[in-house]
Amino acid sequence: MHKVRSTLLLVLLSSTLFGCQPEHDSPTSEILINDLPSNGVLIEVSDDGDLKNIKEVDLSLETSHKEKFNISLQWLATESEVSFYKLDGKSAHEIVQIANCLKTPGKNESDCI
Fold first, then answer.
1. What residue spans of the chain are helical by DSSP H?
2. Is the CB of residue 102 less than 8 Å from the CB of residue 112?
3. Ramachandran region, residue 34 (left: φ > 0; alpha: ψ -120 to 50; beta: rest)
4. Which pLDDT tens digit goes with each residue over 10-50?
5. Which residues pair with 45 in a beta bridge?
């Protein structure tokens, strides 16, 4: 009985440790080639911290650039601790640049913004 309990505990512990791990890194964690134009529509942030004109920024970008911008913005919103207030007045190019910088080991917010 003790051996069965130990085996069951080992199986449960192993499945918890290894079964919950992602098979690979999220695509948002990759450093992206930033070939977005350095000019363009600038992000506006409202007084309550909402991004006001993301649709306008998105519509101004080519398809391949939209994907990089959206992946970077998603990463900033979910994986970083950067306040959206700090993104006010930034271009799509700068958003990708900031996200790439923050994904670099050893870099922090003050290095990247």
1. 2-19, 54-59, 63-79, 92-103, 109-112
2. yes
3. beta
4. 454 455 555 555 554 565 789 999 999 999 999 999 999 99
5. 51
